[in-house]
Amino acid sequence: MSADYYELLGVSRDASAEDIRKAYRKWAMKYHPDVNDAPDAAEKFKAIGEAYEVLRDPQKKAIYDRGGDPLGHGAGGPGGPGMSGFGFPGGAGAAGFDMGDLLGAMFGQQASRGPRSRVRRGQDALVRLSLTLAEASFGTTKPLKVDTAVVCPNCHGKGSADGSEPTQCGTCHGQGDVTTVQRSFLGDIRTVQPCPTCRGYGTVIEHACGECSGEGRVRSQRTINVKIPAGVTTGNRVHLDSQGEVGPGGGPAGDLYVEISVAPHNEFKRDGDNLEIVAKIPMVAAALGTEFTLKTLESEREDCKPEDREVKVSVPAGTQSGTRLTVEGRGVPRLRGPGRGDLGVTLLVQTPKNLDDSQRELLRQFATLRNETRPEASVDKARKGMFDRLKDALS
Questions:
Q1: Does the pLDDT of residue 208 top 70, yes or no?
Q2: How do strand 167-168 and strand 203-204 relate by DSSP bridges?
Q3: What does pTM read for this prediction?
């Protein structure tokens, strides 16, 4: 035992088991006689195999670190009795070393993970809910029917019929996986796979529940009340914890996401946190100035307070068609943060139609007083964009 095992593998004395495995894999693949025909390749492969045999075993590593001889070279020496031609105790498959472990180190073979549980978390679910503009703007609570998997009421998630229990799998004996051995020039290659009989569970349900066929869950439609916060809009999602699909074996339920879709309104239009509406007023009222009462969007709610059902809008004298007036704080409550948006009122000035003779004569007198009997049309560049604003409001 003249060589330094740590130096042979190129690792430090405090290297982890994973670092030691990776180092061995690197050098073993480099110096294996089947891939390296250098004269000293076999000897180096034998030496690093011996180093890995010691350092991978905590007990042998402790003996080596104290200065002892964990392989008992005094009894036979490297390559002597008890050692294979590659420096591994007992050869491939002997009690001291398994060629499957060597291949696992070289090729990343995974060890058995044991049986997996039949109980697993369920998937998340997504449903869509249509709301009116008033419901989305000011919040509401809506009953929602959802069709999801629920715990089987017959077996309560066990999956087996009454009076029976899952039994240990006879193929894997409860391990959940089976090992197959294949011969190769390097020795026995061991492959671990899920048991084909129990599918990795380690147990077999011989008498499945007739209601859920062994799944531990069934599909069912139920109704839940969903609280919608004020200020949501199309595309927003409400998250309901543990209201989704129940998992296999009656496992914990996933989450439920409710995606909001807001139906268009006949009068109001939402623009961010603002509400927009078009109000028609007579030509004379726009010229002289007036005040009118406007029914609010909140009035569509059953629990709306009387003082919130209407707002007063003051129209200054000389107001032109397309003018937008603002009523502050009467828009949509902000979804994140305090306060509300504004209510925008775009005025559409209406020209009177179906005049009688006296009304027509009064308008002629008014036109004569203002010298507008034969007016010339003009374009006011300062009012550019009025028609666009009016078109948006009407749409």
A1: yes
A2: antiparallel
A3: 0.62
